[in-house]
């Protein structure tokens, strides 16, 4: 009769139950692990034998077959070690209570001296355990804080295999580890918008972009403050909800980036990959498939500095995630879908040397056009706000007066987001103005007569496309929300029309 132990396997940033079935058969002593496991799973046979021997358990001198069910789904990772060890021990000399095994799941890697090593992806597997009706979860002590983020689940952390078995037998009373499990939050952000000087006009568009979830592109000469502003955008974004925090933490848990924090992520992520990042690093991929930078920026900011220096192929791969807010990575034997609901913030120079329009620029017209054409039309069309950043005047730099703080700007953003939350309460896929569908635009973007006339005049003069027309309405809706106006006013529409600078000489960004 096979002994069944509960475990879990990762699929993208989610998990699914796996039954570790262990049976002892008469025949030549050997151990076989079946169920489409990868190399790490196959090598568990050697770790199991060494760990059981070190813990003074007799390794069965029979033919051992361990099946990871469902057998037709590929599995990877070393976190099955503990479940397989418990199945072997229970099938041999130590009879563990079957009712306890049925209500308990096991996660953890075994070292050769039977110590439990931490593993990646504990949070999504713990959530799957709760949803599957599992009552208790046993993990390595280093994963305890992460697993305890899941409510309605008893979580126990141990350091060795012997401690786990003694606990199941009732001979060891569980004592929580003597360490602080509470997250240490930073009271103040490291950067603040109060440090930004001389860009008051641009800040209004930064606030609107964050409030409405609009993608944002800054174009200007070196030293005008593009990177400085981008790094401060997370400080004015709305507070994370518990659901959003769990989504981000799951992604970081799967990629192994959560272990040092060992807590729930409560700050919106800010990812700034270098321009030589590969397609797989940006979008996701590898073997096994892992999330890329766009997923690590989920519910936060993806900042592409010097965006024109990125590979054209990598940038064009952003088109689908920017629309769908998810990315699907397909391989021959598997398909993984990762969340990618991020705010794209990009910065670039107006020409290769960065000083286009100034006496020091030596770039030819051909070089300028070639440089700007590195950004394809479809990518530019998905960036709602495109602003030219002027150099900061000397008097602004010399002034000791500080600008509005991130806390003040965040209150304005939160006010507009609260309005949008109530507006889209019936939708599970739309949470900000930038995500509105065609039907929502017609329902929620009601224009006052003066605003309608202004939009009509602009449309007739510049021959905007239907997509650009809708984007202007979305941005205007955000400007109206910032001041609590139920209708889009003339000044809201005027601000929206200026969200993409009209100065062709400066920007060359006319995509209308």
Describe this structure in words.
This protein has two domains: 167 residues, Ribosomal Protein S5, domain 2, CATH 3.30.230; 315 residues, P-loop containing nucleotide triphosphate hydrolases (Rossmann fold). Helix content is 38%, strand content 17%. The chain is built from 23 helices and 18 strands. It has a five-stranded parallel β-sheet with strand order 11-14-17-10-18. The chain has a four-stranded mixed β-sheet with strand order 1-2-4-3. β6 and β7 form a beta hairpin. The termini are far apart.
Mean pLDDT: 90
Gap between N and C termini = 70 Å
**Order of strands side by side in the largest beta sheet?**
11-14-17-10-18
Tally of separate helices: 23
**Sheet with most strands:** 5 strands, parallel
Low-confidence stretches: 180-188, 502-512
**Second CATH tier, the architecture of the largest domain:** 3-Layer(aba) Sandwich
Question: Helix coverage percent of residues?
Answer: 25-40%
Net shape: elongated
Which quaternary structure do these chains form? single chain
**Proportion of beta-strand residues:** 15-25%
Question: How many beta-strand segments?
Answer: 18
